Amino acid sequence: MRALMWMGAALALAVVATSCAADEKGSGCDLKVGDNVGAFPVVKAGGAEDGVKVGETLCYL
Amino acid sequence: MVFTRKIDDGLASLVKKLDAVVAENEEKKMFAFVNFVGEDAEALQKAAAEFGEKHEISNIALVVPKDHANGPKHYGIAAKTALVVALYSGKQVKALHALAEDQLSKKLIAAIVADTAKILVEEEEPKQDDQPDKEKKDRKKQAEKKEKKEA
Q: Computed from CA positions of residues B31, B35, B41, B44, in that sequence, does the dihedral angle turn out positive or negative?
């Protein structure tokens, strides 16, 4: 009985570990927690009224 | 910072919630922007603008990256990745969610919103009450010793 309970707990942990991996790594992105984000150019399309005009190119980082 | 290939109700729900979080933390200079990625830059511009107007996004910038097909190359966003949410502070990533298509659920939206706390905590100064109080510890030790002796 005790062995079965431990096996159940181990399986539950494995399921949690798998779902975390799918969220962060499995879907494909080189960025990882702890990495520095690098700047890149974008064109404003809408949203926040932050003084940047729609169509303007800038780096938001 | 969000990258998305798909515009749907799930994205709207996430961006609206993040928009509210940014508004609540305006004083802490919290900032966010959503990158719409895909093949046709002009179509993305139009879709992003429409998305902003339809969902009244007023605190988050909606943009199309120059590398619009997959986002900036150094981020390595795979073609199969539908949504990336990177929460960063001081340019360092503190939390990351990279999802395939149709993985965005209510539960994950809640988790992403909860993760925004990770980039706010560092800006708060530690309270004095949180500092270890040596006197309190000493008194507790003495009381424990006394109890042991009496027992």
A: negative
